[in-house]
């Protein structure tokens, strides 16, 4: 343990603001993918630090879009507001109104509201092809994405509706109940896989045939990515009934597919920022996930784009967080207790109760062969079961850099009753 502490002491430097972010940007260099993690979905500082880093990446390095661990339809509504499209909400609260499915606080919060306003202002006087986008790359929007496809096609030629009608008819018996569909598809072979593949094919690459660089082209992309979300969700719910690890893989591979499609849409040389939990952006091969046969965004991108990816993890010693005690239960502000002894977070705290930046640019680091517990808090959290919240991790192999915030506080959700005030 003494050697580990000495290695941490040699790596850790104070993290105080813009000057330290600039040092981090210099390390990032010219990569096309910057992955910004978080150790929870309900901590204010993770959101605000990611926002400040993203601003600098956009302004100083020309990054074109942000892809987040959120659903395509709700994030696309916010994207429309950020880009100043018509009928995208008269204010940012309205633009956040589609984040109405649990956990609502994950994106409908004051921290995102302030960042969205900055993005809208940044985009205001720019031509369409220079505006920065904001998109969701997750997999849970099966029903919402179907609805959006219908809206997109309702004014099109009637023949365009054939594939979506067949998909709707296939899913209709399940009453928008994902578990019911998953059981039927997985156990009884009564799924809708063929219908959703046909739906995706009917909408695939339509945006490529539009020569304009305006909203119509992006709407066509959105229709395709809603179809891709339907396909991904169908596979996810069908798989999760029997194989938890494989359903995780379906989800992260889907997020890669969406990300790559966005890179194609933005054109040669496009550069993207990804916001997702540490468990998605940190290389799975440096954790015990590999023992379960699990992959994630960080691993898949590094394998496909070696040397062109920079992953930054986040963590905290103690504070407060927004989470629920069970899936779908009301959000609560919970206490995050001091990190367990000899965990990554506790060792960093022991070096001094201050925020720290660690850059792992030394391949010979003595930490490269050390597995240390690293805290991960989900949308469901039980502080009293703290021991189960740690992922065995080889930190320098999981991330390229790490930002440690010693004391953190819960983010500020926008309550549903305030959304349209």
UniProtKB/TrEMBL annotation:
Coiled coil: none annotated. SUPFAM superfamilies: EreA/ChaN-like. Pfam families: Erythro_esteras (PF05139). Keywords: Methyltransferase, Transferase. The keyword Transferase applies. InterPro entries: Emycin_Estase, Hydrolase/PRTase-associated, UCP036794_erythomycin. The keyword Protein transport does not apply. GO terms for molecular function: methyltransferase activity. This is Protein-L-isoaspartate O-methyltransferase. It comes from Paenibacillus rigui.
């Amino acid at each position: 343990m003494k050697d580990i502490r000495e290695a941490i002491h040699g790596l850790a430097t104070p993290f105080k603001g813009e000057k330290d972010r600039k040092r981090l940007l210099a390390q990032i260099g010219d990569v096309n993918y910057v992955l910004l993690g978080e150790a929870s979905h309900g901590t204010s500082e993770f959101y605000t630090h990611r926002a400040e880093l993203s601003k600098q990446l956009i302004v100083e390095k020309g990054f074109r879009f942000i892809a987040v661990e959120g659903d395509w339809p709700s994030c696309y509504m916010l994207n429309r507001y950020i880009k100043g499209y018509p009928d995208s909400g008269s204010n940012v609260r309205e633009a956040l109104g589609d984040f109405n499915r649990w956990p609502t606080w994950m994106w409908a919060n004051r921290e995102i509201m302030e960042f969205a306003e900055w993005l809208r202002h940044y985009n205001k006087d720019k031509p369409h092809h220079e505006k920065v986008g904001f998109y969701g790359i997750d997999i849970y929007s099966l029903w919402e994405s179907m609805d959006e496809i219908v809206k997109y096609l309702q004014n099109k030629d009637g023949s365009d509706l054939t594939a979506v009608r067949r998909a709707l008819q296939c899913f209709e018996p399940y009453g928008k109940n994902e578990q019911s569909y998953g059981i039927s598809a997985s156990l009884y072979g009564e799924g809708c896989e063929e219908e959703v593949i046909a739906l995706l094919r009917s909408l695939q690459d339509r945006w490529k045939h539009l020569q304009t660089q305006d909203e119509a082209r992006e709407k066509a992309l959105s229709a395709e990515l809603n179809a891709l979300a339907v396909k991904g969700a169908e596979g996810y719910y069908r798989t999760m009934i029997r194989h938890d690890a494989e359903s995780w893989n379906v989800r992260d591979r889907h997020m890669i597919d969406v990300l790559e499609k966005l890179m194609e849409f933005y054109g040669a040389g496009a550069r993207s920022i990804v916001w997702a939990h540490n468990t998605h952006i940190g290389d799975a091969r440096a954790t015990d996930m590999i023992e379960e046969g699990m992959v994630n965004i960080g691993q898949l991108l590094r394998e496909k784009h070696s040397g062109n990816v920079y992953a930054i993890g986040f963590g905290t010693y103690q504070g407060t967080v927004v989470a629920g005690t069970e899936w779908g239960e009301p959000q609560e502000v919970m206490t995050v207790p001091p990190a367990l002894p000899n965990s990554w977070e506790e060792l960093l705290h022991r070096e001094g109760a201050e925020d720290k930046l660690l850059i792992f640019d030394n391949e010979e680091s003595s930490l490269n062969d050390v597995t240390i517990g690293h805290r991960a808090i989900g949308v469901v959290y039980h502080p009293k079961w703290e021991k189960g919240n740690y992922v065995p991790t080889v930190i320098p192999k999981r991330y390229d850099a790490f930002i440690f915030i010693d004391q953190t506080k819960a983010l500020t959700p926008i309550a549903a009753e305030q959304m349209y005030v």
